[in-house]
Amino acid sequence: MATRGQRTNRRADALSKQRIVDTAVEILDTEGESALTFRVLAARLETGSGAIYWHVADKGELLAAAADDVIARVLAVPVGDAEPAAAIRAVALGIFDAIDARPWVGTQLGQAPGQLAVLRIYERIGGRLEGLGVPEKALFFAASALVNYILGVAGQNAANARLAVPGGDRSAFLAAVAARWTEQDPADYPFAHRVAAQLADHDDREQFLAGIDLVLAGITTLG
Amino acid sequence: MATRGQRTNRRADALSKQRIVDTAVEILDTEGESALTFRVLAARLETGSGAIYWHVADKGELLAAAADDVIARVLAVPVGDAEPAAAIRAVALGIFDAIDARPWVGTQLGQAPGQLAVLRIYERIGGRLEGLGVPEKALFFAASALVNYILGVAGQNAANARLAVPGGDRSAFLAAVAARWTEQDPADYPFAHRVAAQLADHDDREQFLAGIDLVLAGITTLG
DNA sequence: ACCTGAACACCGTTCAAGT
DNA sequence: ACCTGAACACCGTTCAAGT
Q1: Whose CB has fewer CB within 10 Å in chain B, the N or C terminal residue?
Q2: What confidence category does residue B3 fall into, taking pLDDT thresholds of 50, 70 and 90?
Q3: Distance D4 C1' – B93 CA (angstroms)
């Protein structure tokens, strides 16, 4: 993200969890998930790889902290006093955009549930549900439907990003996926053939929002 | 001629992709995701680790094939001529149960979109949407809302299974998650505090189905 | 208390060599 | 064509030793 200037040979400050996480995010953002190893992280921090373990339990905690950092920042922007449905859409869209920009966050969210980041998302989404007329008893499962949908899209998008060629354009990628759908036997996969064109054409962000709206429409039904 | 003939345990049959995948599934099921390595797989198959690469491109393909095998089997059971909503619920529940029994399938589905298994799910779900009165133009995104929700739950459940202690009971695990929610500041996380009890009490399967019903209710809105 | 970096116990994958 | 298994190029993590 933020381009850093020339790096002196001396560490600016002592090692800390925050500095480690910041550097990890930087590597993740610029070089991708597979580039983050304790060796390159240590080199970038000008320390030994073992030093990192003084501040962070293991790689899982590091990844969780990195994802949480990003999500916390995204959710920090105030939604104002928009009406509940609009606020939920805005929050969801913010998460989508963050994941779209950083696929590694999607990977992380898709597979770490106890995580603080997921709790943050539940809080921001769930907090608006009452305003939507959701009865007290249904609050948790209504929130869970929205959150699981968001996390599902997050995981799929991250995987897509991992699959796509770094430079390649998106419509070519979608065309390739659509082609795999249509190369199946139409007798076994009639639906796949029927919607392949829609798959090839669709806009991810728009489709994501449409899904949110669908769940919201269902939730309104609960009132 | 060096008498090297003490191959007492002669293999029952030649190596094949199917036999490799079957053995991988066996290891995944009994020993878990982390136990599947090319070394133990080769040992179990009484061959060299390099031999596997003659039949399978890499570990990613192996995992994808294993997950696809399971999903194909799950989707093979006929739903009969139930009405569309009931059929979709049945299909979704079948997938949920399969993932609950084999968390590694959830991990795999949550992060491999181009996969045949995901296409199969789209087909089975999507094929019933028309009967629900979904207009042609909305078929793909309606299916995608359902599938992404399912895959989101799949990923979270798999991650939960990875986190939980193998022998530990489920209510203790949920209580621990709920405790992490309530240990946050109530001023920052009012929703978390409010629904922590629901989180601790809920039944995963029931909650999953409730989410499906919510999306279905939203989809009915499109008619 | 915090850091160093070699060492340990693994991985997935390749490939010359065999049949 | 198919299989073998040693070798390669990595990993995350530990830990005795330093400051």
Answers
A1: N
A2: very low
A3: 45
